[in-house]
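> run fold MFS transporter
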Amino acid sequence: MADIPTRRPRLAAAASYIGSALEYYDFFIYGSASALVFGKLFFPHAAPAVGTLAALGTFAAGYLARPLGAALAGHFGDRLGRKKVLVGTMIAMGVCTFAIGCLPTYATLGVAAPILLLVLRLAQGMAVAGELGGATSLSLEHAPQDRRAFFTCWVNQGATTGALLAGVAFLGFSRLDAESFLSWGWRVPFWLSAALVVAGVVIRAKLPESPEFAEVERGAAVERFPLRTVLARQPAAVLRVIGSAVLTVTVPINQVFALSYGISHGIPRSTMLVIGLVGMGSMLITQPFFAIAADRFGRKPVFTAGGVVIAASAFPFFTGLANGDASLALVGSLVMMPLGNAMCSAVAPSLWSEMFGTGVRYSGTAFANALGQVFPGFAPTIAAGLVAGGGGPTGLAVFVGGCAVFGILVIATARETRGLAMDQLGAPGTAARPRQPARLDPAPRT
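> ok
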């Protein structure tokens, strides 16, 4: 039997950061494209508002596929190891993203074009679903006990970087004339993902397996059906992750919906891209500090404070967009994203993954988060529907603020996990069990 790998927290955090950045770059360039061009290219016969709504609907469809992808990734990640599955999901994401960049439009393929677009988006959603659960599990299980929030926050640092790179890519090509941008300019960011994914696979493949998982694999029974164990023993933990994930509507709202909403109210396309980039870019500075605070003061206080800031900043942000006031929109974004959203996203990886034991952590975190991301995935579509129904900035602010308050209330019911040892995390019986015939013993629900 192989020796237990040495903990390598910095390497694990770096590999998780780079892998998440590449996967979420792929995921978010689709969001930018759906807001800027897909309505015109794949739904050309619909009215502009309806075409945008349809394009945003395909963006949301990727979130619908996440639970299935998470169930598969979590199952094999808890049975075969975190690293193997993470390499596979990255390759799958790269192939799907490159294929979208090569996809003919409605003018060439007719109705088959939007159908293929939807299929590839669903495949993207399945691939990305295993990223947060796997990368977080890997980082958490390599991290020292008193710095778990800091080292796991680099998973969302990577996701933020990916969203930022997606915005930068589209900002550069958005300066082309309209004909060139619609003809080929939008495709280049999708093609670039191929080279990025190759680099990411090489880096991630060099990382040793999680020492916690290797210990479970060597000395205890690997769960035969880890997701079944999670749902049977920790339904409350699954529901807490799902409920608190509602608060993450801020990311698709800022990166996808705000683009089309601001442009429709007179703010130039390049300016809206810059507003999104500044908000996301600032998060890269603030997130590590909020994670350090979570290691010192607890996960719940930092997450709760972030929700309060998000709710307070929603009205000025949407008011600025609705009035064509780029300065006010920028101020609102700078409060909402690098302060409010950063507090929550810095803490979420440790907060969620620490709810589950090592034997089921990948499955529990990935599946619960995937279900929790379905609603935020539809947030741009819901927001566009509110606007189409005559809603203004107040209605949009109530929508986002209400999601933030709901997330706060859910996390208030969770256990604080700062300072707990790894074998104290999750429900009894989900960390490691002696080898024995597979059975599901009753255990307290948490």
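The chain has one domain: 9-424.
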